[in-house]
Design a protein that fits this description.
Blueprint (H helix, E strand, L loop, with lengths): L51 H10 L6 E7 L5 E8 L2 E8 L5 E2 L12 H8 L17 E3 L6 E7 L4 H16 L3 E7 L8 H10 L3 H8 L13 H11 L7 E3 L5 E3 L4 H9 L3
Parallel strand pairs: 6-7
Antiparallel strand pairs: 1-2, 2-3, 3-4, 5-7, 6-8, 8-9
Helix pairs in contact: 3-7, 4-5
Length: 274
């Protein structure tokens, strides 16, 4: 999964992934205890702490003293604090190391799934944000499953994204178990994959799910030209929806999930929207 450049929140510091979420209540960390016998305790807060005053001092050094602290917690990657802030309505996340000497701005990606943990944590705090699936053009999308199925799932995929290929296999498993689910696939080539654009265009020109699957299987596919604007339109659509990476799944009720999802979990996510 690959993300695009982040939004600039001030001239002195970059914060990214801003979404319209509601501020969350945060708890001050406890003071440091001692290391457990034989090494660091699994509960990092027993040995490390970070409080509002300390974060406030950090924000002052970044000329962001006016920003409101909306969350302090251990990040998905141990060794870092995750700080959520609200700067005049703009929301963002950055990280501070346990030594409180360095600031880290970027995304934490889970290697096994390609899931963007930073993005997921931001989205957990804005449960009202959903995408109206009825506003996504599906007439030129590739279809997996029965078009008459009651539960429509839209997937933005890149033919050269390895996690997209893994998700595709999980989608097949879903369809083996559930006939009431249909997947609509939108080809969204990322710029860092130099061949993804022409491959996406060839697949759309041929309206061929098989070509996409052949490509995921590392088989060569033909380069086909046609007068379609589908790929360019999908790129613009994704940008307008703040979809910044692949694979991205839009569930029937509009909830958004980024990264590869095992079949059983994907079914549970779909069911949760009942």
């Amino acid at each position: 999964m690959v993300l695009k450049p982040f939004i600039i929140i001030s001239t002195l510091f970059l914060l990214f992934l801003f979404f319209p979420f509601q501020p969350i209540t945060h708890n001050l960390s406890t003071t440091a205890d001692a290391f457990s016998e034989g090494g660091c305790d699994p509960d990092c807060k027993k040995c490390h702490s970070l409080n509002n005053q300390e974060v406030g001092n950090i924000l002052k050094k970044m000329n962001l003293s006016h920003a409101k602290i909306t969350g302090i917690q251990i990040s998905p990657a141990k060794g870092l604090w995750e700080i959520s802030i609200d700067d005049k309505g703009e929301k963002g996340i950055f990280y501070v190391d346990f030594a409180k000497k360095h600031i880290v701005v970027g995304n934490i990606i889970e290697i096994d799934t390609g899931s963007n943990k930073t993005l997921s944590n931001v989205k957990k705090t804005h449960t009202n944000k959903k995408i109206d699936i009825s506003k996504i053009p599906l007439e030129n999308a590739l279809v997996m499953g029965n078009k008459k199925a009651s539960k429509k799932v839209v997937v933005f995929t890149d033919p050269d994204c390895p996690f997209c290929g893994k998700l595709h296999q999980e989608m097949k498993k879903v369809l083996e178990k559930r006939k009431d689910i249909v997947f609509y696939i939108k080809l969204y080539p990322l710029k860092m994959h130099k061949d993804a654009y022409w491959k996406s265009k060839s697949i759309v020109c041929n309206n061929s799910l098989k070509l996409l699957e052949d490509n995921f299987d590392k088989k060569p596919i033909p380069k086909t030209e046609c007068n379609t604007k589908e790929i360019d339109n999908t790129i613009r659509l994704a940008e307008s929806l703040d979809i910044t990476g692949t694979p991205t799944i839009i569930l029937p009720d509009g909830r958004v999930y980024s990264g590869m999802v095992p079949a059983d979990r994907l079914i549970n996510l779909i069911n949760r929207g009942k």
